[in-house]
Design goal:
This protein has 381 residues and is mostly helical. The protein is built from 17 helices and three strands. The radius of gyration is 22 Å and the shape is globular. Bound molecules: acetyl coenzyme *A.
Length: 381
């Protein structure tokens, strides 16, 4: 048996053509394209690239948009399910339940052909934002806002959430948020998706596995933790003391550290620039100033003094951006999932296309009761 590595660190578990990471140089590519270049595109273009392995021309992009914009609405029964949700939960839990419900009505549920999986993928990508927006509107006691077919994917989500068409900068920021969140090789949730797909379970189940895994605070849940931390600190003046206390008491600073990157996560740099832009547009530097202070203290104390590669990751400035977009904290991880869903779907389809059951081994470290005296005693008694 091969050597045991806790947390599967550094283990190559499978081959992929979807994304590439160089953790030493801070490089991330989707299907061979650098993330910094992809950040100039729309989310729809990146979805096309991930699902069809091709950047779309104008005609293909229009066709893709026309196909997805008309399937955003939810069926009546799924809306009812959302009404019955417990509103003390995170939107992630609501997303999981509603997608499980949607799967029951999907005409292709148990058809696993590539064509059926693409149809299901488009439905999942189109409908997931509507679930999160409706959940929030109902939770706030407001009327739901139906999808607007004139708006692109991300602007439409903000529109359904707030009932107002977002500004150009807000739309661009959410597009970027979805692009940067959508794919990241074999992260924990994508691995969960691939394990589920490898049993030849359906693609809805694979995505639901991903949602459950993304929710944890060591993964996508860190974005919510960053927002909570900013709220708790409250002002730029209190930041140094708060972070120093966390470091001195050996607590983890959320939005920092990564299993793969030994330098700054390239997505985090793009998010930092964006956070600055939106702070300037809103003429409110508070959250941005707090974030740069946190970054300064963590770099000084953990990187420079302790020599640990604990740099900001994708969740740090995205949490800051959500503060400026006034995203309710309970929605933070679900919005990450709305972006990540495309990467999950691409991976599930790649898994189906050349499948072998994913079933690693565990090293047994318990005792061997070879005499089984205890069992003999029990059966005699
Ligand atoms: N703050 C302070 N110390 C940290 C942090 C952090 N955020 N992250 C790691 N460390 C320290 C650990 O305490 C440990 O120190 P030690 O060797 O003195 O005990 C060392 O760095 C290595 O930590 P591990 O937990 O072994 O690193 P691992 O690769 O398993 O963890 C992880 C990666 C989970 C992301 C970790 O860095 C972490 O907990 N970060 C905070 C949560 C977070 O931001 N998650 C989002 C990641 S990005 C994403 O999933 C979308």
């Amino acid at each position: 048996m091969s050597k045991f590595k806790k947390g599967l660190e550094g283990i190559i578990a499978l081959e992929t053509e979807i994304s590439y990471i160089d953790g030493e140089k801070g490089i991330l590519e989707y299907r061979g394209h650098r993330i910094e270049k992809l950040a100039e595109l729309s989310y729809e273009e990146v979805v096309h690239l991930l699902l069809y392995d091709k950047l779309p021309n104008t005609e293909e992009l229009n066709e893709f948009f026309n196909k997805t914009k008309v399937i955003r609405e939810l069926d009546v029964r799924t809306k009812e399910v959302i009404h019955y949700h417990n509103f003390n939960i995170e939107a992630m839990d609501a997303l999981m339940t509603a997608l499980a419900h949607i799967s029951q009505g999907d005409p292709d549920l148990n058809v696993n052909t590539p064509e059926a999986n693409i149809r299901k993928a488009l439905r999942l990508i189109a409908k997931a934002p509507t679930i999160v927006a409706y959940y929030q509107r109902i939770h706030e006691g407001k009327e739901i806002v139906k999808p607007n077919e004139l708006l692109p994917h991300c602007s439409n989500f903000l529109y359904m959430l707030r009932g107002e068409v977002p500004t150009k900068l807000e739309s661009k920021i959410l597009d970027l948020d979805f692009i940067l969140s959508t794919e990241h090789e074999l992260n924990a949730s994508t691995f969960a998706v691939r394990v589920t797909a490898s049993t030849l379970s359906d693609i809805h189940s694979a995505v639901i596995s991903g949602i459950g895994t993304l929710k944890g605070v060591l993964h996508g849940g860190a974005r919510l933790a960053v927002m909570n931390m900013l709220d708790e600190i409250g002002s730029p003046k209190k930041t140094e003391e708060y972070i120093m206390n966390m470091i001195n008491t050996k607590q983890r600073i959320m939005g920092f550290g990564h299993r793969v990157y030994r330098v700054v996560d390239p997505r985090a740099n793009i998010f930092r620039d964006l956070a600055k832009k939106i702070a300037e547009e809103k003429k409110d530097m508070k959250w941005y100033d707090m974030a740069t202070k946190i970054e300064e203290v963590v770099t000084r104390e953990l990187v420079e003094k302790q020599g640990k590669p604990i740099y900001m990751n994708v969740d740090f400035y995205s949490g800051v951006i959500y503060k400026y977009l006034e995203i309710p904290p309970k929605l933070a991880t679900a919005i990450f999932a709305l972006g990540r869903i495309t990467g999950w779907l691409a991976h599930a389809m790649e898994q189906y296309s050349d499948n072998r059951l994913i079933r690693p081994r565990a090293k047994y470290i318990g005792e061997h009761h070879s005499q089984d005296k205890e069992i003999s005693k029990l059966t005699k008694d």
